[in-house]
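[Target chain]
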Amino acid sequence: EADLVESGGGSVQAGGSLRLSCTPTGYIHSSSCVGWFRQPPGKEREGIAAIYTGSGSTYYHFSVKGRFTISQDKSDNTVYLQMDSLQPEDTATYYCTFCLTRAGVILPNGPNWGQGTQVTVSS
């Protein structure tokens, strides 16, 4: 079973962009759901984007629709999260893990969480 390692966080100003990477270290099934989650300070972790690697179907939390884009590079199976028009409320620790979707809600379905990658957006 693959491990997924997130990277690419950093500090940006409001309105800026950042691209996060979710890099597999093992086999990923062709129909796997890979999701991005974030945990702002003082809040619960929430699913914000997901992609099914076989079909390419994507899902987004309403708060990031139109600003964030999840994609997969089929050449190396890396899953990206392109984040545009970042706002201070996007400040959080971001994680990727296997997932499932239920009525459009992105839920974690991985065996563990990684260390996460920090995104800080200043005004």
Q: What stands out?
A: The chain has a mean pLDDT of 95. The first strand starts at residue 4 and ends at 7. The chain has no helices and eleven strands.
